Fold this protein.
Amino acid sequence: TGEDEVVVDVGGGSDGLAFDPPALRIDAGTTVRWEWTGEGGSHNVASVEESASDFDSGDPVDDADEVFEQSFDDAGIQLYLCTPHEGVGMLGAIDVVEQS
């Protein structure tokens, strides 16, 4: 918390099949910036049904220059995954909290 923008690597971990960090706690109003590392093949960022918000970076890509940003204005749990790598556990979570 306390940041205006937070970066998550897409294609992190030793095999490129993880979000790094996999879980965050941010203040409402914070922008999350997912940056592709170019590792682990093609990735995307897509919210899951249980998420408090709907968001989707589009088709999976493997370009190390790919970036996707999403602002979260409302408190709640944001759950997301990489569609091609959901089966190997490429999942992420963001706990959005109201600023105190």
